[in-house]
Amino acid sequence: MKLTSFLKKADIYLDQKCPLLILFIIIIVLRLPNFFEPYWYGDEAIYLTLGNALRNGGSLYTTIIDHKTPLIYYLAMVPNQFYFRILNLVWMLFTTTFFFEFAKKLFKKELPAFIASLILVVLTTLPWLEGNIPNGELFVMGFVMLGAVLFSKSSVFTNLFKKEMIFKYGWQDTALLVGAGFMMGLGILTKVPAILDVAAFLSIFWLILTNSFFDTSSSFSKLKKTFAYLLNRGIFFVIGLVLPILASIVYFVAKGHGQDYLDYGLLYNFRYSQSWPVDLGDHLINFAFSMTGKTIILFAMFILISLNNEHLKKRFQFISLYFIFTLYSVLLSSRPYPHYFIQMVPAFALLLTDALISLKEIKKKKFLQSAKSLIMTIGLFALTLFVMISFGFRPYSTSKYYKQFFKYATLKMSKEEYENSFDATIKDNREVTKFIKETGIKKMFIWGTNPLLYAQSQTIPTSRFTVSFHIKDFKDQDRTFAQIEKEEPKLIIVMRNEDQSFPKLEEYLAKYYLANDQYSTMTLYLRQ
Known about the structure:
Blueprint: H1 2-16, H2 18-31, H3 42-55, H4 71-75, H5 81-107, H6 110-125, H7 136-152, H8 155-160, H9 171-188, H10 195-213, H11 220-254, H12 258-272, H13 283-288, H14 291-306, H15 314-330, H16 345-363, H17 368-391, H18 398-409, H19 415-420, H20 426-439, E1 443-447, H21 451-457, E2 460-461, H22 468-473, H23 477-487, E3 491-495, H24 503-512, E4 513-518, E5 522-527
Parallel strand pairs: 1-2, 1-3
Antiparallel strand pairs: 3-5, 4-5
Helix pairs in contact: 2-5, 2-6, 3-21, 5-6, 5-7, 6-16, 7-9, 9-11, 10-11, 10-15, 11-12, 14-15, 15-16, 15-17, 16-17, 20-21
């Protein structure tokens, strides 16, 4: 009897969790090839290199530097790439769960929530947008989605869909808003563009306020009460948001690295967003893609959507604002990197699902609101497509990725052939890593761009930076050379594709080093 009762309960539980189980199976199956990839992806290698340096006593933003906020590097303090991929898999299982729960709150039904989640899973797992790699955007998404779930349980989110306001101030509601803000603050500490995800949720306060303002039945006293309520709830949300950021500042100041954190972890992101020149062949289009132009367009679309209360559903207003904020975020640096578009995926999945619902409602004669939502959705998708075409966006091939893995899995391709198919440096890096481990080298310097070798060999750079383009960008050649002179690394590597000379380094190599091995992609210099 006990066994029968247990099996019945297990069956009911599995029925309830069936949508999530299907999504989990898809994620796990599609991510299987991830665990057989070599070290080939630059950003992942930089994260792992910094993580290794931190594990070995390095100081972030002082002795080892990259320009993102700190959490991604602490997450990368895992033993190697395999563990980072495991972390990414588990993270995405949780992220998908949070998104599914949030989508259920938004759509009120399980089927549309499942459809939206399936879209999310496909676009964040397949190689099209580099979703198969542990990119910062995926880790940001986990924090943001957990924050979204907490926010969706608050009275503010409930009031977005209510005609009659519920003025709830209890400690539980406060805790939910602080918790939601805190999680999104952690998202910002993983990658700064998460600020635009936060802006989407802050827009909910604005939507409620404008709805009350344009409601003819609302008295002035009720409007005042609504404003006071939203201000109170908003303050607690912002407190939660600011807490982890303030804690990070206190942490780095206490370690004596406050200025470095400010320079490289926070302020550099503003410089980075404006450092990529854009010339699309037309003055008007160039202006539209400038920081001023993008901001004007964002503001105009925000006003158009948020003030159109009578003819747009509140759900669509929120989702479309979420979409345009994340589109703006993708365009911040004007770079056509596929993984930047990952930040848009949750909003895109929700917007596409909402469009499918609108289509269904139009067939049922619920015409006006649904038709307007559908037309605006088509406009937003067309705008995104225009952006992708203008930037020369090219998604990564999914068919090639899985075909190559299938050949390897069925023994039609050797391990070396499979690994070498990812990048031209893989073969040389494999051989050099073997040499590094045999000679016991722990620190070295690479002039050029090959963070993959640092990560694979688990060596620490004799420089604050992992790649030459950061050394050149920050004009750090003199400081880098002084560090090389002081530490006298046993091994210095010069990449053959590095197009800028480093005269002091060249003189130093000629005086103290011998060219030990020459590979097709690099030359190794051993100290005499």
